Amino acid sequence: MQFRIDAQDGAARAATIQTAHSVIQTPVFMPVGTVGAVKALDALDLQNHLSPQIILGNTYHLYLRPGDEIVKAMGGLHGFTRFPKSFLTDSGGFQAFSLSDNVKIEEDGITFRSHIDGSKHHFTPQKVLDIQYNLGSDIMMILDDLVALPATRERIRESIERTTRWAQRSIDYHRRKQMEGIGVDQNIFAIIQGGTDKEFRKISATELCALDFDGFAIGGLSVGEANREMYDTVEWTTPFMPTDKPRYLMGVGTPEDLVENVERGVDMFDCVMPTRNARNGTLFTSFGKVTIKAARYATDEEPIDPECGCIVCRTYSRAYLRHLFRAKELTYFRLATIHNLYYYLDLMRQMREAILEGKFAEFKRKFYRKRDNG
């Protein structure tokens, strides 16, 4: 993987990431395709209407169904899904933690039961990499010991210490496998933990960033803490991260979260919010959210967002989208998802342009002014 900073405006960065499958311009939002598909869309929708250079898949879900060996036999994620650009795969640790009963965290890994059939499984730092080698993702996340907040200082300390030990095992294993010709074109990211505690974030970031990873993520945020706590934690953490490698904030978030954290030096984001909210009737626009089921849109001939250039806004009215939603027509899910993801991807494009022009502060003022007026 190649990484180049193209411009910087304050802490905000515009960069270019080159993987084996695509050129990714940052700041970038990665649509979530948990089981190898962005919900309601196929690879042609992504290519023809959205053009993301990278999407996210999940190791836990793909391991359980259809199974990573099947994905490998079908040509990896790229051959199986027919999405030709880059994939990032999460390690699955969060899903094992959040979806399973009786999760047991041990020194060598995580034991959990499948949310599908109750079968018992064990993830180790090496095991999740083996799964991701089979998936063929361009960026692989390592297994970390995440903590639900609030948590005691003792539990957070245990988490960051175990995360560092697992990170060392992961990077050592990955470099050995690459020497064997496995995962040569795959990249590996570590995940900084520490809750909202500045001392622990510094320790975790310092220890992990001393290791030979291709990039680094900030994990364990957007889990119920106040937005200001999240922003402060990111602002505190990024200075301890390398300037010459990608910075990824996991599971974040709202359009406001993206703007605030780009300003604080983050390059990469993912979140289910645009796709999940689309299915639930909430559409994102330059002037704020639209709840499409509202009665006032019943005869509204305007597009969802007059400033949006997506195929949905260029073709359909709010009235039609409202009708589809209320009729529970499946077409609604596709159209709403296309619009919301287009809005997110275009927001990142606008931020990149502002950084390249040295006008990020001006962009941010206009962004909030539109929302206040809307």
From TrEMBL:
The species this protein was found in: Nitratifractor salsuginis (strain DSM 16511 / JCM 12458 / E9I37-1)
Cofactor(s) this protein requires: Zn(2+)
Catalytic activity line of the entry: 7-aminomethyl-7-carbaguanine + guanosine(34) in tRNA = 7-aminomethyl-7-carbaguanosine(34) in tRNA + guanine
Protein name (record): Queuine tRNA-ribosyltransferase
Keyword Transport attached: no
Enzyme Commission number(s): 2.4.2.29
Any GO BP annotation: tRNA queuosine(34) biosynthetic process
Single Gene Ontology MF annotation: tRNA-guanosine(34) queuine transglycosylase activity
Residues annotated for Zn(2+) binding in this entry: C308, C310, C313, H339
Function statement: Catalyzes the base-exchange of a guanine (G) residue with the queuine precursor 7-aminomethyl-7-deazaguanine (PreQ1) at position 34 (anticodon wobble position) in tRNAs with GU(N) anticodons (tRNA-Asp, -Asn, -His and -Tyr). Catalysis occurs through a double-displacement mechanism. The nucleophile active site attacks the C1' of nucleotide 34 to detach the guanine base from the RNA, forming a covalent enzyme-RNA intermediate. The proton acceptor active site deprotonates the incoming PreQ1, allowing a nucleophilic attack on the C1' of the ribose to form the product.
